[in-house]
Design brief:
The complex is a heterodimer of chains A (47) and B (128).
Chain A (H helix, E strand, L loop, with lengths): L1 H6 L21 H9 L10
Chain B lengths: L12 E4 L6 H5 L15 H23 L2 E6 L11 E5 L2 H11 L3 E2 L2 E2 L2 E4 L11
Classes of the chains: A mainly alpha (47), B alpha+beta (128).
Protein backbone atom coordinates (compact mmCIF):
# COMPACT_ATOMS: atom_id res chain seq x y z
CA UNK A 1 0.00 0.00 0.00
CA UNK A 2 3.06 2.18 0.22
CA UNK A 3 3.11 2.50 -3.55
CA UNK A 4 -0.52 3.56 -3.65
CA UNK A 5 0.11 6.28 -1.12
CA UNK A 6 3.05 7.63 -3.07
CA UNK A 7 0.94 8.00 -6.19
CA UNK A 8 -1.35 10.51 -4.54
CA UNK A 9 1.54 12.74 -3.59
CA UNK A 10 2.32 16.03 -5.19
CA UNK A 11 3.73 15.82 -8.67
CA UNK A 12 4.35 19.49 -9.22
CA UNK A 13 4.93 22.59 -7.19
CA UNK A 14 1.89 24.23 -5.63
CA UNK A 15 0.42 27.31 -7.26
CA UNK A 16 -0.68 28.69 -3.94
CA UNK A 17 1.37 27.54 -1.00
CA UNK A 18 4.11 29.82 0.28
CA UNK A 19 3.41 32.56 -2.23
CA UNK A 20 3.92 35.87 -0.40
CA UNK A 21 2.17 39.11 -1.34
CA UNK A 22 4.18 41.21 -3.79
CA UNK A 23 6.54 43.48 -1.92
CA UNK A 24 6.40 41.49 1.31
CA UNK A 25 8.74 38.67 0.39
CA UNK A 26 11.23 39.72 3.06
CA UNK A 27 8.92 39.44 6.07
CA UNK A 28 7.20 36.46 7.66
CA UNK A 29 3.42 35.97 7.66
CA UNK A 30 3.47 36.49 11.43
CA UNK A 31 5.19 39.85 11.02
CA UNK A 32 2.70 40.73 8.30
CA UNK A 33 -0.25 40.00 10.58
CA UNK A 34 1.35 41.96 13.40
CA UNK A 35 1.67 44.92 11.03
CA UNK A 36 -2.00 44.55 10.12
CA UNK A 37 -2.94 44.47 13.78
CA UNK A 38 -0.91 47.63 14.34
CA UNK A 39 -2.66 49.34 11.44
CA UNK A 40 0.50 49.73 9.38
CA UNK A 41 -0.94 47.86 6.44
CA UNK A 42 -4.60 47.24 5.60
CA UNK A 43 -6.28 44.04 6.77
CA UNK A 44 -6.55 41.23 4.27
CA UNK A 45 -9.48 41.81 1.96
CA UNK A 46 -12.18 39.21 2.06
CA UNK A 47 -12.68 37.85 -1.47
CA UNK B 1 -19.45 35.89 12.07
CA UNK B 2 -21.32 37.95 14.62
CA UNK B 3 -21.84 35.02 16.97
CA UNK B 4 -19.53 34.33 19.84
CA UNK B 5 -17.26 31.47 19.01
CA UNK B 6 -15.35 29.78 21.76
CA UNK B 7 -12.05 28.55 20.53
CA UNK B 8 -11.19 25.15 21.96
CA UNK B 9 -7.82 24.32 23.47
CA UNK B 10 -7.79 20.88 21.91
CA UNK B 11 -9.50 19.78 18.76
CA UNK B 12 -8.98 17.56 15.78
CA UNK B 13 -10.46 20.21 13.56
CA UNK B 14 -8.64 23.17 12.10
CA UNK B 15 -10.38 26.16 10.60
CA UNK B 16 -8.49 28.09 7.95
CA UNK B 17 -10.32 31.31 7.32
CA UNK B 18 -11.10 32.58 3.86
CA UNK B 19 -8.59 30.34 2.13
CA UNK B 20 -10.63 29.46 -0.93
CA UNK B 21 -11.36 32.19 -3.43
CA UNK B 22 -14.18 31.36 -5.74
CA UNK B 23 -13.33 32.87 -9.14
CA UNK B 24 -16.86 34.28 -9.34
CA UNK B 25 -16.26 36.19 -6.14
CA UNK B 26 -12.79 37.27 -7.17
CA UNK B 27 -13.99 38.57 -10.49
CA UNK B 28 -16.12 41.06 -8.57
CA UNK B 29 -13.38 42.12 -6.20
CA UNK B 30 -13.36 45.88 -5.88
CA UNK B 31 -9.63 46.34 -5.56
CA UNK B 32 -9.00 44.31 -8.68
CA UNK B 33 -6.33 42.23 -7.02
CA UNK B 34 -7.86 38.95 -8.09
CA UNK B 35 -9.37 40.09 -11.33
CA UNK B 36 -9.34 37.37 -13.93
CA UNK B 37 -8.28 37.90 -17.49
CA UNK B 38 -11.49 36.42 -18.82
CA UNK B 39 -14.67 38.34 -18.16
CA UNK B 40 -16.94 35.33 -17.91
CA UNK B 41 -16.06 32.31 -15.86
CA UNK B 42 -17.58 29.05 -17.03
CA UNK B 43 -18.92 26.47 -14.65
CA UNK B 44 -16.38 23.93 -15.79
CA UNK B 45 -13.52 26.29 -15.10
CA UNK B 46 -14.87 26.98 -11.63
CA UNK B 47 -15.11 23.27 -10.92
CA UNK B 48 -11.60 22.73 -12.22
CA UNK B 49 -10.31 25.64 -10.18
CA UNK B 50 -11.99 24.22 -7.10
CA UNK B 51 -10.66 20.70 -7.71
CA UNK B 52 -7.13 22.00 -8.11
CA UNK B 53 -7.45 24.05 -4.96
CA UNK B 54 -8.86 21.14 -2.98
CA UNK B 55 -6.18 18.73 -4.11
CA UNK B 56 -3.42 21.23 -3.53
CA UNK B 57 -4.54 21.99 0.02
CA UNK B 58 -5.38 18.42 0.93
CA UNK B 59 -2.08 16.96 -0.25
CA UNK B 60 -0.04 19.70 1.35
CA UNK B 61 -1.77 19.39 4.72
CA UNK B 62 -1.68 15.61 4.81
CA UNK B 63 1.96 15.52 3.71
CA UNK B 64 3.12 18.07 6.22
CA UNK B 65 0.93 17.60 9.26
CA UNK B 66 -0.73 14.19 9.31
CA UNK B 67 -3.65 12.07 8.26
CA UNK B 68 -6.87 13.91 7.42
CA UNK B 69 -10.26 12.39 8.18
CA UNK B 70 -12.37 15.00 6.50
CA UNK B 71 -11.96 18.30 4.73
CA UNK B 72 -14.70 20.78 3.88
CA UNK B 73 -14.54 23.98 1.90
CA UNK B 74 -17.20 26.68 2.17
CA UNK B 75 -17.80 27.58 -1.44
CA UNK B 76 -20.50 30.16 -0.95
CA UNK B 77 -20.71 33.57 -2.52
CA UNK B 78 -21.94 35.49 0.52
CA UNK B 79 -19.90 37.12 3.25
CA UNK B 80 -20.54 34.50 5.87
CA UNK B 81 -17.83 31.86 6.23
CA UNK B 82 -16.70 32.64 2.72
CA UNK B 83 -13.84 30.44 1.59
CA UNK B 84 -13.42 28.88 5.00
CA UNK B 85 -11.73 25.51 5.00
CA UNK B 86 -12.35 23.01 7.80
CA UNK B 87 -9.88 20.19 8.13
CA UNK B 88 -10.48 17.36 10.54
CA UNK B 89 -7.29 15.50 11.34
CA UNK B 90 -7.21 12.01 12.77
CA UNK B 91 -5.09 13.14 15.68
CA UNK B 92 -5.37 16.25 17.87
CA UNK B 93 -1.60 16.67 17.95
CA UNK B 94 -1.53 17.00 14.18
CA UNK B 95 -4.23 19.66 14.27
CA UNK B 96 -2.33 21.62 16.88
CA UNK B 97 0.89 21.37 14.91
CA UNK B 98 -0.91 22.42 11.74
CA UNK B 99 -2.38 25.57 13.31
CA UNK B 100 0.96 26.67 14.71
CA UNK B 101 2.79 26.17 11.44
CA UNK B 102 0.08 27.40 9.07
CA UNK B 103 -0.15 30.73 10.83
CA UNK B 104 3.37 31.39 9.68
CA UNK B 105 2.81 30.53 6.03
CA UNK B 106 1.57 32.30 2.92
CA UNK B 107 -1.15 31.10 0.64
CA UNK B 108 -1.83 32.71 -2.73
CA UNK B 109 -0.23 36.00 -1.73
CA UNK B 110 -1.95 36.25 1.64
CA UNK B 111 -1.11 35.16 5.17
CA UNK B 112 -2.92 32.05 6.40
CA UNK B 113 -5.32 32.51 9.32
CA UNK B 114 -5.66 29.18 11.09
CA UNK B 115 -7.27 28.26 14.41
CA UNK B 116 -8.74 25.23 16.15
CA UNK B 117 -12.45 24.75 15.62
CA UNK B 118 -14.94 22.92 17.86
CA UNK B 119 -16.67 21.35 14.86
CA UNK B 120 -16.35 17.57 14.73
CA UNK B 121 -19.51 16.62 12.87
CA UNK B 122 -20.00 18.79 9.80
CA UNK B 123 -23.61 17.77 9.35
CA UNK B 124 -24.40 19.21 12.76
CA UNK B 125 -22.36 22.37 12.34
CA UNK B 126 -23.97 25.75 12.72
CA UNK B 127 -23.05 29.04 14.31
CA UNK B 128 -24.09 29.27 17.95
Amino acid sequence: FGVEKKKARRKNISLYWDVPPAGFEHITPLQYKAMQAAGQIPATLIA
Amino acid sequence: CSRIHNKPTFSQTVLIQNLYHNPQNSAQSADGSHLLTTTTVGEEEIQEHFDNFFEDVFIELEDKYGEIEEMNVCDNLGDHLVGNVYVKFRREEDAEKAVADLNNRWFAGRPVYAELSPVTDFREACCR
